[in-house]
Amino acid sequence: MIIVMKAHAEPQEIEAVVQRVEEMGYKVHLSRGEARTIVGVIGADEHLIQNGTFEVMEGVERTLRVMQPYKLASRDFSEVDTVINVNGVPIGSTKIAVMAGPCSVESREMIIETARIVKEAGATVLRGGAFKPRTSPYSFQGLGEQGLQFLAEARELTGLPVITEVMSAEDVPLVGEYTDIFQVGARNTQNYSLLKALGKQNKPVFLKRGISGTIQELLMSAEYILSGGNMNVMVCERGIRTYETATRNTFDINAVPLLKELTHLPVVADPAHGTGMWQLVAPIAKAAVAAGADAIMVEVHPDPSHAWSDGAQSLTPERFKRLMGDLRLVAQAVGREI
User: Fold this and answer.
1) Are 239 and 249 in contact (CB under 8 A)?
2) In CATH, which of 3.50.50.60, 3.40.50.300, 3.40.225.10, 3.30.70.1140 is domain 2-64?
3) Which of 2, 55, 56, 228 lies deepest, with the highest CB count within 10 Å?
């Protein structure tokens, strides 16, 4: 449930409501708008709404039931967009974040070179996989902890925050030592033990839509993390599996504005996995920005023809630089910036 405070309620009135909620054994999430504050009561049941516990308190306008099954992720729970600060990089603000880098960390030299390239072009977050979930057990699975160490060194040299994938609950402590953002891949979107473990962390979580997942299933997965206490979650449209075989996946451009309607969480677009073809990455990235995405994730490799994974959907440094110029124009056209 949510408690809507009156316009310009006094700070002591808000604090009194928060204290009362906590005394009853529930958790609180505050959403402060320009005119009023919303107090989210996490774990509350229908009885609290029916007995008018809070409506008699000073400064309270009304209480509401959150109708969606994803309570904490719902736009009803917070009318204010969540902005996640990652080492000074805002994700969810008017400034669109760009996450760029190779699918896999292949060597120290390669990831450092790529980090410098993408930063110079304007990227704000460095991506790179140290643990790679692959369809074939014979494909390259990543460098593991060594890859994480290389990412950390690239961050130190460039100042770019790092995002990398975590594949199991057991790996959370290790990956957490190195990454700034935990990435949950499409194959793990409904790995509930992993989601619960990430709910106990303080670092942001980047949650991808499942390969055949619905929008509601994506938001329910986010709910697992939010309900654990970690409110720093961003959701990513990365293409879904359909009957179409011309592309790797079908990028659901509808999902971007729809997610912006349904949730206060930042929405990210991944056109590389969404299409599987470098030729389509730029047009889909531009479409996603126009549709309202808060961040874009793309794969960039110094030499895609020799990439150890996902070379076909990776941009060369020159193409990435060109894309950044185009994205700035699109962002400006919709009242945002990169």
Assistant:
1) yes
2) 3.30.70.1140
3) 2
